[in-house]
């Protein structure tokens, strides 16, 4: 058995999630892929995938094997590219994930610029307002907002965004004045995580400490779009990231409140698996997204009307 070929076949199956698609990617036949995988599993002594008629999922042993062999293969490819002079023209698929609104506004245009400069790179952008597991979901690059919890990942901070409390001018005028974070207690608030109890929002207290303030849900959603629509409809107060409401605040549809109590800005980070060396195509995407987002993400969203 050609061990290197078997490993490449295994990685293709893991990334494509299909024996048939792996065969297409490798430009070989489905029986060849099946035989190669069977031989590799026999050599290792473990089943690497759970297979059904529709789905091919990694087993626990398969995931552990993937975590070890993919960085090795990536490193080998990078060395070969550098030695053969191919490093200057990186190619291949790069899977990228980002939050929906941020991804549409900043990441997608950045990927198009990269694609124009490197036509052989094939970006695969997946937008989701949730934390995607880079290893389990076979993601090469993730753009995340917030502090990184997994220390095994490599991250670059490329900017910051603020959290801002917003409401329509009409809603503000019709309710009791919100002069301090404690005034939000019992007021109708719009939550973007679907949690209808025990929710709190962070604000900086008079003593300079970040303090959670309990809020009451009047509307919840697991996506930014519906929560912003609810805020614009005067359903309640909403806590958003600055870029999400920039247009609405500039137009006067929303006003910001409690600006002096805003918590520290959240970092915008480009994250990848903590492998020793990234393949050329991934390095190009990471560097390109960093340059594009830094150039277009404002350090401050401007002078907003404050209620």
Please specify the SSE layout and strand pairing.
Elements: H1 3-16, H2 19-26, H3 30-44, E1 49-51, E2 56-58, H4 60-84, E3 92-98, H5 100-117, E4 121-127, E5 141-145, E6 153-161, E7 163-167, H6 169-174, E8 188-191, E9 200-204, E10 210-214, E11 216-220, H7 224-232, E12 237-241, H8 242-251, E13 255-257, E14 266-273, H9 280-296
Parallel strand pairs: 3-4, 3-5, 8-11, 8-12
Antiparallel strand pairs: 1-2, 5-14, 6-14, 7-12, 7-13, 9-10
Helix pairs in contact: 1-2, 1-3, 1-4, 2-3, 5-9
Indicate the percent of residues in helices: 25-40%
The average pLDDT score comes to 86
Radius of gyration: 24 Å
Main sheet characteristics: 5 strands, mixed
CATH topology of the largest domain: D-Maltodextrin-Binding Protein, domain 2
**DSSP strand count:** 14
* Succession of helices and strands: HHHEEHEHEEEEHEEEEHEHEEH
User: What amount of the residues lies in strands?
Assistant: 15-25%
What number of structural domains do the residues give?
A: 3
Flag low-confidence runs. 300-307
Q: Provide the CATH architecture of the largest domain.
A: 3-Layer(aba) Sandwich
CATH class of the largest domain: Alpha Beta
Number of helices: 9
Structural class, from helix and strand content? alpha/beta
Tell me the overall shape. Answer: elongated
Describe the structure.
The protein contains nine helices and 14 strands. With 307 residues, it is of the alpha/beta class. The protein has three domains: 82 residues, Orthogonal Bundle (Arc Repressor Mutant, subunit A), CATH 1.10.10; 104 residues, Periplasmic binding protein-like II (D-Maltodextrin-Binding Protein, domain 2, 3-Layer(aba) Sandwich); 99 residues, D-Maltodextrin-Binding Protein, domain 2, CATH 3.40.190. It is elongated. It starts with a helix and ends in an 11-residue tail after the last helix. The C terminus is likely disordered.
């Amino acid at each position: 058995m050609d061990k290197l070929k078997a490993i490449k076949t295994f990685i293709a199956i893991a990334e494509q999630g299909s024996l048939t698609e792996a065969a297409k990617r490798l430009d070989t036949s489905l029986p060849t892929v099946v035989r190669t995988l069977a031989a590799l599993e026999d050599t290792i002594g473990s089943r690497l995938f759970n297979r059904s008629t529709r789905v091919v999922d990694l087993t626990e042993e398969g995931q552990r094997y993937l975590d070890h062999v993919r960085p090795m293969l990536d490193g080998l490819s990078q060395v070969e590219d550098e030695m053969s002079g191919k490093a200057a023209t990186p190619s291949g698929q790069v899977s990228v994930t980002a939050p929906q609104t941020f991804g549409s506004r900043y990441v997608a245009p950045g990927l198009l610029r990269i694609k124009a400069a490197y036509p052989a790179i094939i970006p695969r952008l997946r937008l989701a307002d949730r934390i995607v597991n880079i290893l389990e979901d076979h993601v090469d690059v993730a753009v995340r907002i917030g502090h990184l919890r997994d220390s095994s990942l490599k991250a670059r901070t490329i900017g910051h965004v603020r959290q801002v409390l917003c409401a329509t001018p009409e809603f503000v005028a019709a309710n009791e004045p919100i002069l301090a974070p404690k005034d939000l207690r019992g007021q109708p608030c719009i939550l973007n995580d679907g949690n209808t109890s025990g929710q709190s929002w962070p604000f900086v207290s008079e003593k300079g400490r970040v303090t959670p303030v309990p809020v009451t849900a009047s509307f919840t959603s697991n996506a930014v779009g519906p929560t912003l629509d609810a805020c614009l409809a005067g359903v309640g107060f909403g806590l958003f990231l600055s870029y999400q409401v920039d247009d609405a605040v500039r137009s006067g549809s929303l006003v910001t409140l409690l600006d002096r109590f805003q918590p520290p800005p959240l970092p915008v980070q480009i994250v990848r698996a903590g492998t020793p060396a990234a393949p050329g195509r991934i390095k190009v995407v990471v560097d390109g997204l960093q340059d594009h987002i830094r150039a277009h993400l404002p350090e401050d969203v401007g002078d907003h009307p404050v209620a």
